[in-house]
Each structure stands twice: as C-alpha cells, then as structure tokens.
Specification:
359 residues; alpha/beta; 2 domains
C-alpha cells in the first residue's frame, strides 16, 4: 500500500514518469497492484528466520531476488530505486546501489527492521515515519521524516452518508471499525465475539460494528456471531474493504493492530483508537508504534494477553462515554497525522532521481 501511495504521488509530481514495481509472489499482493493497473515483477521472498534451514532459505531467496533485480534494472535503464519494506525490498535496493543508482529507503515503523538498518548507511537517503526509528543504525547520509504514505482515496474527505449507505449502517448509532489488517486478526475477532456475548455489550447497547474479519475468518465469525446475544444485527461483517476512506468516514472509534499504516490512517481521520499490538512483530515494533501514539494521547493500548470483554468494555466506555476525552484523543491523533506524506516522499524520490543526471 505505501508503494501504491507513492506511485500515485509520483505520477502527480512528475507526469509521464515510468515506474517499475518489484513485489513478492503472494496472490493478494499481486491483486492489489493489478487493481491499480500495474503488473509487478514477482520475486522470491522469505524471511531470514526459523533456524538454520529457514535462514538458508531466506538467504537463497534474497540472492536470487538480487540477481534478477540487478539484471532487470540494467535492462530497464532504471535511474533510481526506492525500497518500501517487504522481503524483496532489500535485494532490490542493494542491486540499485551496486549499479551506482541513487537509492532511497522508507521505514514505516518506530523501530527500523534489520534489513533497513543494514541498508541505511549504504543508500542515498532514508525516509521515516517515526523520528527515532534509526537510533540503532550506523552513519546515515541523509535522514528525512516524511510520515507514512497513504493513498489519496483513503484520506479525508469522504462522504459519511455514502459510507452508511454502502455498509448499511444506522446514522443514529456510533460505529466501531474493527480492522486487524488485510488478513484480519483472529485475536481481535475472538475478543469482540466475547464482548458481544458479555454484559458489556448491553452497557454500550447502541454501538454498531463495521467489522473487517479477514477472508480466512469471516464465515467462522459469522457462524459464531449468530449465537452472540443478538450481536449479528449490530455488526456489518466483511472479509475486506477496498475503499477504506468510506469506512473511516462512518466510524467513531477504531479497534486495530499497531501497524504503521493503520495508525497513520486513523490519525489522518482524527479517530480515537483502541490499539492491540501484535506481540510477535519483529523487534516488537508494533508495541513501539503504539507507545508513540499513546504518549501523545492519540490512542489507548491494550496488550493482547489482557484483551478480553472487560478490557474492551472499559476502553469503549472511556472513549464513547466521555465526550471531552474523546475530543482530546481525536485532536491528538490529528496532530500526529501526516496527510502529505506520499507527496513529501515522492518529492524526495524525485530529488535523488535527478541526482543521477548530474553524476
């Protein structure tokens, strides 16, 4: 998604620019690109994890990706390379750097990943969402805080009336948007089902739910929802939402993981958030993302091990039951928002691209 947001901004800043995408080979990832009219080059991708066997597989995939990316970049006569995370990003950026091209990496999270920490001293410029993401990296030539790039259609404004019609929501009820990422989050689904079967759901009886359960989970959640004390009538259950702008437009509170994109989008809309960091995220980066927002008063953080019906009831009541606190959280979120992040990152990318013509 950051790559597509950057591409959109690049085409606005430099009409006629040619863009080539490298991606992993997962079908969902490829569908997202194709939906935007792009046909990416799919490369082998695997994490450097899982013992010697897993690390050896990851290194072999990285080597194959590097060799292929280097060949394609030369054939395509690329003038600059931008890495936006993912397992194929490192080999592609390294290939560009070894070819002598200007290179730029963007780190979405509050703690830079191992690959980006290794690349940071070797690239032309580094962009970040969080200002201290590279505290553990070596010497960096140029560091720019751009924020996290978001696609234009996800940003305000969008029509709440159109969103309510699209999702079948009651305009008189507050709405909780539940989004555990593109694949959904089983732990969030389980906790919300527990909440709907608890006394807390009756305490906050007028709340309705726009619930992204994930394609792999949606039917199971629907079955369980039918026995959750009338929760089925209050929930609009979907596997995935393409037009997230409409989803944010109709929401009053967000229940989400602490991925950088989710937090950036909620902040752009000024939405109070209940954030549940993924406990096994690399370098515990989701907890660090959430802490940054919580420190500024933009969200409530609930650890996954403590996530249950009572915790959800208390968090929802503290936000929906206190208009002053809710307004303060919304204002804090807006202060953290960087709605022009895609444009700023695009301008930085074009600046390093123009360096190529001066070499």
């Amino acid at each position: 998604m950051p790559a597509l947001a950057l591409a959109e901004a690049l085409r606005e800043e430099a009409p006629g620019i040619d863009l080539l995408f490298f991606s992993g080979s997962k079908e969902q990832e490829l569908r997202w690109y194709r939906a935007e009219g792009a046909e990416p080059v799919a490369l082998p991708a695997a994490p450097l994890a899982g013992g010697w066997t897993g690390k050896a597989r990851g290194l072999w995939c990285a080597w194959k990706s590097y060799r292929r990316a280097r060949r394609i970049l030369r054939e395509w006569r690329a003038q600059a390379v931008v890495g936006l995370g993912g397992y194929v990003s490192g080999p592609c950026v390294l290939a560009g750097a070894r070819l002598g091209l200007p290179t730029l990496i963007h780190e979405q999270n509050a703690v830079a990943g191992k690959t980006n920490r290794w690349l940071a001293p070797r690239v032309t410029a580094v962009a970040t969402t969080y200002p201290k993401a590279f505290a553990r990296a070596g010497r960096i030539r140029r560091l720019v805080a751009t924020g996290n790039p978001i696609r234009r259609r996800v940003l305000p404004p969008a029509s709440p009336a159109q969103g309510r019609e699209r999702f079948g929501l009651d305009p008189e009820r507050p709405t909780l948007l539940v989004c555990g990422g593109s694949q959904g989050a089983k732990r969030l689904n389980d906790a919300l089902l527990e909440f709907l079967a608890s006394p807390g759901a009756r305490e906050i009886g007028n709340l309705q739910f726009l619930w992204i359960a994930g394609a792999a989970n949606v039917e199971q959640v629907r079955e369980r929802l039918r026995g959750a004390g009338g929760g089925e009538g209050r929930a609009r259950l979907v596997p995935f939402i393409e037009d997230m702008g409409l989803a944010y437009a109709v929401s009053d509170v967000v229940l989400c993981r602490a991925g950088s994109a989710s937090l950036a989008e909620a902040a752009a809309w000024g939405l109070p958030a209940i954030v549940v960091p993924l406990p096994w995220a690399a370098d515990d980066h989701q907890r660090r993302n959430a802490e940054w927002f919580a420190k500024e008063g933009a969200c409530l953080v609930v650890e996954e091990r403590r996530l249950n019906a009572r915790q959800l009831t208390e968090a929802l009541a503290s936000i929906l039951g206190d208009p002053v606190a809710r307004r303060a959280m919304s204002e804090a979120a807006r202060r953290l928002a960087r709605p022009r992040a895609a444009r700023d990152l695009a301008r930085l990318a074009l600046e390093i691209l123009r360096m190529e013509s001066r070499l």
